[in-house]
Amino acid sequence: MSTSTDLIKKLRGMTGAGMLDVKKALDETGGDIDKAAALLRERGIAKAAKKAERTARDGIVGSYVHHNGRVGVLVELNCETDFVARNESFRELARNLALHVAMANPLYVRREEVPQELVEEEKRALRAQALEEGKPESIVERMVEGRIGKFYAEVCLLEQPYVRDDKKTVEQLLGEAVASIGENIVVGRFSRIAIGE
Description:
Largest sheet: 3 strands, antiparallel
Order of helices and strands: HHHEEHHHHEEHE
Strand order of the largest sheet: 1-2-5
Number of strands: 5
Strand content: 15-25%
């Protein structure tokens, strides 16, 4: 089956994928542009997962200062090569992450960084809350495990809904960037300063 040039151009514009990948996806989905875009996303995320094992030792520091000068953020965003670190879309990602940190105010990058005593304290509070609500002991533990996920989504950058598109998390945003840029991308650390906080 031959795929039209216009369809290939349109899908490339939507996904940023290479011409051969786009043509192959369109051929596999019988020319259905939505199915082909979904297929390319799946493949890109699979490739991103493989790239996550590679070391990201280069990168940049992205920054954001709110227009009133009362909130400022620095974000260390790492990649594998200085070539990607100079790439405009990589730099824009760093700026967008700094903006996200300014607005969402996470405390940690990933859940492994949250001190265990803080997690235990939160679990105790959630357990007490569930018991006060009159929930039976048998389901309290499952409720606590479910609710602790919401706690992580509040305090961990990677698990927060992205401020510019709350249908995806920051981690999913990074996965999409890895898929389109072609290198492992990792948030190293961040620092947020706010007047009066």
